[in-house]
Records
---
Amino acid sequence: MAVVLCMAPWFSAAAVLPQLRAEWNLSPQAGSWLALAVQLGFVVGAVGSALLNLADRVPSRVLILVGALVAAGANAALLVINDGSLAFVLRGLVGAALALVYPPALRAMSAYFTTGRGVALGVMVGALTLGSASPHLVNGLGGAQWRTVIAVTSVLAVLGGVIASRVGPGPHRSPAPPFRPAQAWQALSARGPALATLGYLGHMWELYAMWTWFALYYSGVLRAAGGTDVTRVSALATFAVVGIGALGCVLGGVLGDRWGRTRVTELSMWLSGASAVALALLVSAPPGVILAVSVFWGFWIIADSAQFSTIVSEVADPAYVGTAMTAQLALGFTLTAVSIALVPALEPRIGWPGIFLLWSVGPLLGAVTMRVLRGTPEAARIAGGRR
């Protein structure tokens, strides 16, 4: 519940980006940078957190509370400014603050579970998914009033931080290790964590780019079909496409624990990449058909996400699990910044079909990487020997 609420500010500006561009007279490029700012801020925050070993040395509930309060404050500050440059800084601060929420939350959950960890982290990432989707629901139900979206998501983040502050340390949390900045790299340089991280990068290549730009894409689909009330309908559609991923995360956790993590991550990326290819081919399909394929895509695009973190928690040094998770997330979100930024630069040239084909490359390569990991000796430590 804390993560659902704390992560609400993540996509708050992206959910109302057309309104912000109109009110602040932002160019399309400036709007793209505003959407990208959170990713860049998260990378900075995650890198700093990994170097300082914060997720392993500071209680998770303290980090999450601080991150939630800072994110809420920076998000709410958008209500009193009228400048795109300052908005970029504030959105970057939101991302940096949420780097104190997401990795420590994964670390905290892993400290409560040894068996069933895949389901546990799947529920946690499902919560992240719901939190990320919530601004689109608020937007769809609130008549596209961007101030309402910003205000509500800021209040939700504060409430999430308060809830997190009530969560004690798990029974399997390791004692605070020595301060070792180099551990941020060493935690991922071993073969097992390195392969898991490469698979994670393939997954992340498409995930946040799709989450960020789907509302814009589907708005164009609706307009081309002569639809009405496009803003509201596209917001609700985006909530469905992103939000359905919460169920995918849970199923991914169940399959990861029972069937094997490398298997479920590989399957998920094959299906996700195939969905992107299918949408590239459905250029003239009715909006309902496109939405149905997109919902299927939204289910599988995130179903594997928690399992990458779970694999790292099982094969990394137990004393620095939080640092390893944070470093993995930092690399992943660095890549998302690239894939998000490429869309406005390439879409006018190659169109949305070309964008979807480009996105499909990541999960297809990631699936191959997880097949390689399955054949290594380190795989015997994953999911109790179920690889």
Note: The first helix runs from residue 2 to 6.
---
Amino acid sequence: MFGLVKTVFCPQAAIVFDVFHIVAQYNKVIDGVRRAEARAAMETDKNVIKGSRWLLLKNPENLKEKEIPRLEKLLSINKNLSKDELKTIWQCNDRQQMSKALDDWCTKALESGIPALKRFVKTLRRYEYGILNHADYPIHTSKLEGINNKIKVIKRQAYGFHDLEYFILKVKQACL
């Protein structure tokens, strides 16, 4: 689909992948690893791992004071669950710097030996062009997703417009 849109309608467009969507996919991988580790854990460690899903997925700055020691204990039990610095790749300003950060992250993930992380690295490599394009075009999809949400609300409130031009005017009015 991306190829068709780019070549037919916008041949000069560069496809940029937003950090939010990549991290969302990574969170699914981490959740799968956490479940596998919980199944494989010894009985004494299961109590620490059980109920740790949101603790692992939280951003460090959002951790509560009492959650920090639990996270540290959880990570000391199993290094496979360690939080990663995937988001820092998008903080690079330069394409070469971003490429190096991505290479470093992928190398660490591959060295972990975790099959789910290896598959995730393959996905990242397949879409590397869109990730690296973020260095040239540091945009995020949050505004676009907000506008899409507005359009959906307008469509729901109207129970469908029979006149496309009127619908377009309503969307333009909402986005001013």
Note: Confidence is low (pLDDT under 50) at residues 1-5.
